[in-house]
Model the fold of this input.
Amino acid sequence: MADEYTTISDLFIQQFITNKMNIYNFSAGPATLPLDVKKIIEQELYDWNGTGCSVMEVSHRSQEFTNMADENESLLRSLLKISDDYAVMLIPGGARLQYAMLPMNVSSTQGQAVYAINGHWGKEAVKEASRFCQASTTAEISASVYNSIPAYDEAELNTQADYFHYTSNETLEGVQWHHVPRTAGLRLCCDMTSDLMTRVVNIDDYDMIYASAQKNMGIAGLTLVIMKRDWIGQSINLLPTMVNYKTFADTRSFYNTPPTFPWYVMLQVLKWTEAQGGIKVMQQRNQAKSKKLYEYIDQSGFYQNKVEPLFRSEVNVPFWLHDEALDAKFLNQSSQAGLKALKGHKAVGGMRASIYNAMPESGVDALIDFMKKFEQKYG
Ligand SMILES: Cc1ncc(COP(=O)(O)O)c(C=O)c1O
Done:
């Protein structure tokens, strides 16, 4: 770490060395994992659950693995308060597969669907859905510049549509819905890839929620899909077995060989989340971390965040230097100071700090400390 920008106190450095951690990773995803989870993975690598081998080497049909899957589902249900009216499915293919699976399963080429667009991922979702149904968006429910969420008149919504879809947290732009959209009775579907588990959600408000795991539930390879059971298995399309929700709901995601290691990591992250106090505690921490960072950015004349305060994300904080010519220096020097992966997505530019559940408050403190020193030097 560079002396000039040593943002991490000696005490932390000592802890880092002891804990085999020497950086803060602000990656948007795959994102930083809790240190305790990595330690458990390391410990169990050679002997998982008394099997004498790692979890990667046992049959998914074995008693050990099915017990693990049961524990995972019951922890998901208790953390998120998911009732039995919903199926809990773990599906490979990432959140992007859900962009297609949803319309394939619940709509048709003649069917309609309404998409609210507030950023990059919503745009991708409607593009993919348009291949399978008449997916549309309107200016009323979509932003023209991705820095807010426009208010809309519910009465204007197309009530012939099969569902209403939105993205609760736009990961690139740092725009987050802090309310549940009104849908004039349409079924409500949400891509919660970057904020599920980071704040309290009332699952009963939704018909379908999905989130890939690599931000707040472990590593890439699995997407959690929570879906009202009464909406599953009604497809009028002839679907391949592996993209039919019924396959996953009926077999509890065991139809084929699932990605077993990501499943195991998910359980470790869920256990960690529970041990921290559950989702309410995660929400409190994320609010405290993001508040601190936004407050620092807002009072500075050197940095800025362009999102309207009401719609700012509690987990992805983009920021820009007023002088873009300093971007490269900022990224280079922050990286040397142990603050990694702060580059904003190329579609948005600038910087972005992803401060999901596993990012400790000390990471945000270290970032602010660095930003102050950088401002003093170049401001
Ligand atoms: C909100 C959101 N939706 C969808 C995706 C795409 O997820 P995946 O790469 O798992 O398909 C991402 C990825 O970062 C995301 O942040």
